[in-house]
TrEMBL record:
It comes from Acipenser oxyrinchus oxyrinchus. Residues 199-233 form a coiled coil. Residues 85-126 form the B box-type domain. Keywords: Coiled coil, Metal-binding, Zinc, Zinc-finger. This is Zinc-binding protein A33-like. The keyword Coiled coil applies.
Length: 264
């Protein structure tokens, strides 16, 4: 890709307030996006919840993080980092590691194999170790992908439920207002009380659903990142793959243990 492309991309994923790459970006209804912390600071300083760019009044007090924009910004930052250095020779013997010690789970050279340090250890060629560990990762991927699919399904159900709930609340409020408009003055206090109770119910339910959607979004983002890292590691060179395998293994195990699926 050309340099001009990255310049334009950086403009798109930069906050107009701090002029830096987005960190937890939120998008207002006017389609302008800002860092969550920058927007909160602007609103607090000015005492008005308006868009810093077009000055339109914000329709929501706590806009949600735009995870699509966040992922793009994070991917861009990662692409600008230098790749980690890879040790391609044995530190002790300056030989290219062609073997893998299963007992210590580390790369070794032919000279290391004959040393006392690895006496009696089970040693296999690098190629065999790569195949074995890739098979383990292949086995680990389907459960994570299945869990990701379930989370996305639940997220869709939650979003659908929120829309239905809002329509029901709106219709109920309209009926209540029409009903009380027909009553005499002595019933108007009852009208206000019922509408207030209804709106309180809407706020409570909306808050619960919002928290659930935010949690699901975080879980989906975490699982997507884990799956992407695993797939990238599986495409890496053999030596780099084996050096990073323990970290990758801990990542997918930790991801599998920390995620909890709560059906709506």
């Amino acid at each position: 890709m050309t340099e001009s492309f990255f310049v334009k991309l950086e403009e798109v994923i930069s906050c107009a307030v701090c002029c830096k790459i987005f960190k937890d970006p939120v998008t207002l209804h006017c389609n302008h996006s800002f860092c969550k912390s920058c927007l909160s600071q602007q609103w607090e300083e000015k005492g008005a919840q308006e868009c810093p760019a077009c000055k339109r009044r914000a329709s929501i007090e706590k806009p949600l993080v735009n995870f699509t924009l966040k992922n793009i910004a994070e991917s861009y930052l990662m692409s600008q980092k230098s790749p980690p250095s890879i040790e391609t020779v044995c530190r002790k013997h300056q030989e290219k590691p062609k073997l893998f010690c299963l007992d210590e789970e580390k790369l070794i050279c032919v000279v290391c194999q004959t040393s006392k340090e690895h006496a009696g250890h089970q040693v296999i060629p690098v190629e065999e170790a790569v195949l074995e560990y890739k098979e383990q990762l292949k086995t680990a991927l389907p459960p994570l992908q299945d869990k990701l699919g379930k989370f996305k399904k639940i997220q869709f159900q939650c979003n659908t439920t929120v829309q239905i709930m809002r329509k029901q609340i709106f219709e109920t409020e309209r009926q209540i207002q029409e009903e009380f408009e027909k009553l005499h003055q002595f019933l108007r206090d009852e009208e206000k009380a019922r509408i207030a109770a209804l709106r309180g119910e809407e706020e409570q339910k909306g808050r619960i659903m919002k928290e659930k959607i935010e949690k699901l979004t975080r879980e989906i983002s975490s699982l997507s990142d884990t799956i992407r890292v695993i797939e990238q590691e599986m495409e890496a060179e053999d030596i780099f793959f084996l050096q990073k395998y323990k970290d990758t293994q801990r990542r997918y195990v930790r991801c599998g243990l920390s995620s909890s699926l709560v059906l709506y």
